[in-house]
Amino acid sequence: MMNGATCRASQPGPPTMSSLRPLIPLLIAAGILLAGNGLQGTLIALRGAAEGFSETTIGLMGSAYFAGFLIGCLYVPRLLRAVGHIRAFAALAALGAAGALLLVLFVDPLAWIAVRFLSGICFSSLFTTIESWLNSAAQNTNRARVLAVYRIIDIAAVTGSQYMLPALGIEGFVTFAVMAMMITLSLVPVSMADRSNPRPPAELRLDLVAVWRISPLAAFGCFAVGLTNSAFRIVGPIYGQSIGLSVSEIATFMSAGIVGGAVMQYPLGALSDRHDRRKVLLGTTIGALVAALAIVWFAGDSRSANMLLVFLFGAFAMSLYSLSVAHANDHAEKDQFVQLAAGLLFFYSLGAMAGPLLASLLMQRFGPHALFSYTSIVYAVLIGVTLYRMSVRPSVPAARRRRFAALLRTSPVFMRMARRSRNHRSAGDT
């Protein structure tokens, strides 16, 4: 048997940035789409409120988006198998751009709900196409770097796009036109990318009973994250507007929550690799609960207090999905990972379909701070479920814990990319 030094000597050198050059067009396209999607979510909420739409109507638009999101994830592999990646991407981008323009041509609640449903299908399918392409084109030597660059692009694009709103304004035609242009321009780097036609991803095989049996806590945790995080992303801008924030301050408010989650995911994930992951999940949920209650009880209309507390809220709340998935992976066999990815995404999507509508109904009835009262109730239930599961199931031994990975919820392919990256790193360490 070779010793560790010999194994390391036989490994290829660290990947350089030149190894990512073939993937740059796809990463650029992903950045454009992530920015467009982040811009559309906030714009819909603020422009809808300006047009006199109720909080419930705006919440229903968010629910429609996530319903379309789930349908796109379920059926885009068939489309990719039928026409290939480039043609599928072109058709979906055209539909997404047309939908963005329809929003300003037909300012009507029913029309916007229908367009948001279509947008959910388009964006989830576009991200699945891009990530399937990246997964196929990336090599084991640079896969971890691709994932890291992709996450950086996600954070930069989503947070940066928020500041297009104060720059362009929420009134009139301009922002919708820019949004349509962004979706259309994503076609340019894709058309210049590698002309290979990668193998389409496997269709989502849903066996929810099997996923629940693998980890009831992870399944419920993903559902709870869907209930809360989707509500924050969809009606969070309405909360900011209701407490008197300007458009630029709303952009900062939403960005603070997103950046907080990005900052804390890896420290919390590393902690969960070393200790019982359920304890870290429990502590993170308590942190999200305390931050949500602090916004309700102490923030009031204070701009600085809201900015600080929403950063703390995002730091804990946005990390819960990856922690839940990592806990499920600890209990899964190797042949169950694809099924697990599909099932957990389904549970998240169920929660995400209900969350914006529930939160908006409560906000309309009890005022803007009901958003964070609602999230705190969901987190309290998740804390109870976690404590119960800790009492009936022993912890996973440290030797069996799989490495944590911070996950995007853009498509189930991202989870597979992260899994292949972790498996390669583990093999290199042996």
From TrEMBL:
Swiss-Prot/TrEMBL keywords: Membrane, Transmembrane, Transmembrane helix
A Gene Ontology molecular function term of the record: transmembrane transporter activity
One Pfam family, short name: MFS_1
Record flagged with keyword Transport: no
InterPro entries: MFS, MFS_dom, MFS_trans_sf, MFS_YcaD-like
An annotated GO cellular component: plasma membrane
Domain of life, source organism: Bacteria
Transmembrane regions: 23-46, 58-76, 88-107, 113-134, 170-190, 210-230, 250-268, 280-299, 305-325, 337-359, 371-392
Domain Major facilitator superfamily (MFS) profile: residue ranges: 214-430
Protein name from the UniProt record: Predicted arabinose efflux permease, MFS family
Organism name: Nitratireductor aquibiodomus
Source lineage: Bacteria, Pseudomonadati, Pseudomonadota, Alphaproteobacteria, Hyphomicrobiales
